[in-house]
Structure formats: C-alpha cells, structure tokens
Amino acid sequence: MAADGTLVVAEARPAGHGRASTLQRFARRRSTIAFLMTLPLIAIIGGLVAYPAAYAMYLSTLNRRMTANIGLGNFEILLENDTFRAVIWQSCIFAIGAVVAKALIGFWLAHMLHAIPAKGQRKWRGMLLVPWVIPPALSTLGWWWMFDPSYSSINWILNIFAVPSVPWLGEPWWARISVIMVNVWYGSPFFMIMYLAALKSVPDQLYEAAAIDGATGWQGLRYVTLPMMQNIISITVLFSLIVTFANYDIVRVLTNGGPRDMTQVFASYAFQVGILSGNLPRGAAVSLFMFPVLAIFAYFILRGINRRNKEQM
Amino acid sequence: MSATAIPASYTGRKLGSLRSERRWALWVAYASLIIACIIFLAPPFYMLVTSLKSSAEISNLSGNPWLVKAPTLENYIELINNPLFRGFFWNSIIITVCVVIISMVVSVLAAFALARMKFWGSQMLATGVFLTYLVPDTLLFIPLYQIVGGLGLLNSIWGLVLIYPTLTVPFCTWIMIGYFASIPKELDEAALIDGANWMQMLTKIFIPVALPGIIAATIFAFTVSWAAFVYPTAFVTTPDQMPLTIGVVSQLIRGDTFAWGQIMAGALMAALPPVVVYAFLMDYYIAGLTAGATKG
C-alpha cells in the first residue's frame, strides 16, 4: 500500500552525487524513526495485550492459591461443573439470539431509512442511534427499573392490553429474554448505521438496470442489494458476535447472573469466580474458554476485510 | 457519509402503476421508523420521567408511570451536592482526558509510520493492531488484575489510565492508518523536496489534512473510556477512586429501598457528556463508527 515517497525520490535521481548518499542515509534512518514512532503502540500491544494473554494461559494452569501447577485441572473441573455447562449454553443462546435479532432489525431499519427522502434521513438517523450512544451500563439501569417486579412500566402497558404481567427478571427464561432484549435495543442502531453506509455505496444504476429487466423489489434485494452488501454484513455480524459473546455490562447490571446463575455468560461467570470468589486461576480459565470461538470469528473478519481491500484496489 | 443517494422513487414517478406502490412503501417506511423511534427512545425517556419524580410519587402505584405529575429537580440537586457523586464525575473526567491524549498521540504517530514508512514487519504490525482491536476486555481482565495489582495500582484511577489505552489505541490507529493512506503521495513528495523532515510532514500536512479522521478517532476514544465498565468494576472497589459508570451502578444502589429517582438522575447525568458530543458531532461520530468496515 504505502509506496514511500523517499524511495521514489531516491530512484528518480540516481546520479545526484553527494545528494544520493544523504538520501540513502535518510532512508536508512527512516526505519529507525518509524520504529520509534510505533514504539508506544508496540509497548501497549505487547505489554498490555499480548503479555496478559500469555500470562492468562499460564495463570489458568495454577491452583487456587497459585502455589502449584495443576496443568489442565481448572478446565477439567469447569467442564464437569453443571453451572459452567449452563454458562456455555447461555452464552451461545445470548450471543446468537441477540446477534440474529440485531442483524434483522438493523437491516430492516436501514432499508426503511434508505427509502425515505434523503433530507429527512439525518433527523431519523440521529434519533435512532441514541441507544448506541448512551453507555450501556447506564442505560441498562433504566431497563432494570423498567423490569422492576412491582413497578414495571412495561407491565403497566401490557396490562392496558389485558396481557398479564411478565416476571421479567424473576423467571430463568424471561430473564434470558430480557437480557437479550436489552442487548438488541443497545446494538441494533450499530447494525443499522453499518448497513445504511453499505446501502448508500450500492450504485443506483444497478437498481435501474434491474428494474428495466423487470425485477421486482424482492428480486432487487435478493440479486442486487445482498450480493453488494454481503461483505459488510458478514464483517458486522462477526464483529458483533465477538462483542456480544464477550458482553459483561448488561448481565452484570440487569440480573447479576441470577436467577440461580441461569443468565451467567462467560464474562460475568469469570468475574464471579475470578474476582469475587478470589479464584483467579479458574476465572482466567473461564475467560479462556472464549478464546477459540473469538479466534475463529477474528480470522473470518480479517479474511473479509482483506477481500474487501482487494476489491477496492 | 453525505446523504446524496436519491431514492429510486424518482425513477418510478412517471409510471402510474408504480406510483401507488411507492407511496405504500413510503408509508411502511415511516411507520417502521416511528415504531422503532418509540421503542428506542422509551428507556431514556422513562429514565428522565423517573428522575423528575419525588420518591413518594415513584412509590405510588396508581396512575400512569410514564407521566410525571409534580416534576421536581430535587434528585438532581441532591446528587450535585453529594461530594461522592461529584468525585465520580471528576474521576471520569481525569481518566478520559488522560486516555484521550495518550491514545491520540500514540495512534497518530504509529499510524503515520505504518501508513507511510514501510519497514520490517510493518504489515504484520498493522494486522496485529486490528487483531488487538478484536480482543474484548472481558478476555484479559483477570491477568490484568494481577498485573495492575503487581504495579500497586489497584483501587486507583491511574491504573485505569494505564489500562484503558488497550481499548482505544488499536481502533484509533486502525482508522488513522486508513485516513493517512488516503492522502495522496504527491503531497509528501512535495514536502520532502521542500526539505521538510518527517515530524514537519506529520504536523504540517498529515494532521491538518486528516483532521476529520482525528476528530472521529478522538470521539471514539472519548466515548469508550467514558463508558468503560469491566475494568473499573474489576480494579476499583473504593468509592473515592471510582469513575461514573461503576460509581452510579454500585454506590447509588444501597440496601433494599432503592432511591430510583436518584439512580436515574445519576445515570442520565453520567450519560450526558457522550450524548452531547454525539448531538454536536454526529457526522464525525458516525464516520468513526463505520470507518472500521468501510475504510481500511
């Protein structure tokens, strides 16, 4: 990508006598400068991301008091634990349910936003992005209050339509749905804005050509929009899967894992085991369970982005 | 970003049969958007309504909970006069300012080097930066707890200042690489011929030209460090060192009788800075949001 300016200059004047050598020295020094400029970044990535990741792997092989190495003991204990198996299930239900709902709602809203006249779009977009802007830990407090067993304002509305009150955070399945609902509320605007950006990049001529060929609106969506947006859709979905899979804020504020640990996801369970119960090695093991899944998603995101870059070049 | 795409409705205008179809589509669009807006804005609206109620009105079960009969600012006034809450705000401000400055300096320097000066491993490093962005905070908070503890920075805002850049720097660097790479090479060649050194090239050409990108990255760093939740929850337990997010969540909730009005007022005040930034700089905010996938 970066065909560097200096090299071009140096090659353009091979015959410049004293000049060439200074330029060469400059070029040699350039890599030193570049290295110095990236040094803080390397320090942050190496010291605060790569090293902790390696340290987590080491930590997860220790016993509770960190005095002896027990190999994969923590992982074995966890896998035999019923609560932890429930955590695996709940994390998958939570991530997949929330991401599918977010993707569909985001896709729908992006289309609706794209369908109205351009000058009104800004205003609507501004309002629809508000859930994404409020820090999730704080907006979840509002949801928590809306789900309050005796004062629930959502139940109040349901009661108007003669629907019985729902025990939002009291029953395991309702609690699971509530947690997903809040995540969908928070994350849909992100999908909407990504899809809208992608929709705007589809040239109008393609739709005109399709219309001339007699394509219906549905066919236009199926054969023009989806292929054109395929890459962005997959990048956004994979990215959101990572973030949702590793989500902590919403579960912590809304249910704190309850009722009966039925809404614990990896992150909140790792927190409970590692920090609150003080078993750091086992907590590290819990979060490391996320690692393979995240690595697979990350691989596909990277592939999607590289492919996209090649298309643009 | 500019909303230039003309809806396909103009092409269908002439055809009579398509006209009613278009109008119908428009109605569906507006209806969906109105419903979505109501659902999306209901929680913040309800928080606002609750924050304006007195405790007596909140506990009164008769009547519509979505309306406020006797609005009062007592919850807000009480919070503003609460030194603990002011401390949360102050901590959040200190942390965010430090983190934004650190992230921007680190990421602009690194992005400049990665976008313009090819050196051994630069491509690998750029990929590594992106991968780091994909590492969620919940994966690393336990080893970081040990590391921060080893440095003696648990229960201190400086521990958070040290750790937060891991959340902001990778993405900021990534979008700055995209912006810098889009600057035409002729500009730096011209600068080099005029005898500029690398630092002058960065400050006189790259930073001014890529200013929209820098604003977008700054907004990103600001919102992320303001909203960070996992790290302060794990590393800070003494109230006087807490930033707003965990402060509001853990300290305003006491015992069995929740002061809901105050909790909502606190949450709203804590959410105000990012919302204000968003309201005034929406285009940059969205540019930063979509840059991850549409640029780079």
From TrEMBL, chain A:
ABC transmembrane type-1 domain residues are 88-301
Q: Which InterPro entries match?
A: MetI-like (IPR000515), MetI-like_sf (IPR035906)
Cite the Gene3D superfamilies for this sequence.
MetI-like
Q: Which UniProt keywords apply?
A: Cell membrane, Membrane, Transmembrane, Transmembrane helix, Transport
Superkingdom to which the source organism belongs: Bacteria
Query: What topology does the record note for this protein and the membrane?
Result: Multi-pass membrane protein
By its UniProt entry, which SUPFAM superfamilies does this protein fall under?
Answer: MetI-like
The portions of this protein that span the membrane are 33-58, 87-109, 129-147, 177-198, 232-250, 284-302
Q: Does the keyword Cell membrane apply?
A: yes
Q: Does the keyword Transcription apply?
A: no
Cross-referenced Pfam families: BPD_transp_1
Q: Where in the cell is it found?
A: Cell membrane
Give the record's family classification: Belongs to the binding-protein-dependent transport system permease family.
Query: Mind telling me what this protein is named?
Result: Sugar ABC transporter permease
User: What organism does the record attribute this protein to?
Assistant: Paeniroseomonas aquatica
Question: Lineage in the entry?
Answer: Bacteria, Pseudomonadati, Pseudomonadota, Alphaproteobacteria, Acetobacterales
Automatic annotation (TrEMBL), chain B:
Alphabetized Gene3D superfamilies for the sequence: MetI-like
Principal subcellular localization: membrane
What Pfam families does the database record attribute to this sequence?
BPD_transp_1
Q: Which domain of life does the protein's organism represent? A: Bacteria
Tell where it localizes: Cell membrane
Outline the extent of the ABC transmembrane type-1 domain.
Answer: 89-281
Q: How does it sit in the membrane?
A: Multi-pass membrane protein
Question: Which keywords fit this entry according to its UniProt record?
Answer: Cell membrane, Membrane, Transmembrane, Transmembrane helix, Transport
Q: Where are the transmembrane segments?
A: 24-46, 88-112, 124-145, 157-181, 202-229, 259-281
* PANTHER family reported in the protein's UniProt record: INNER MEMBRANE ABC TRANSPORTER PERMEASE PROTEIN YCJP (PTHR32243:SF18), MALTOSE TRANSPORT SYSTEM PERMEASE-RELATED (PTHR32243)
Q: What is this protein called?
A: Carbohydrate ABC transporter permease
Q: Which organism is it from?
A: Paeniroseomonas aquatica
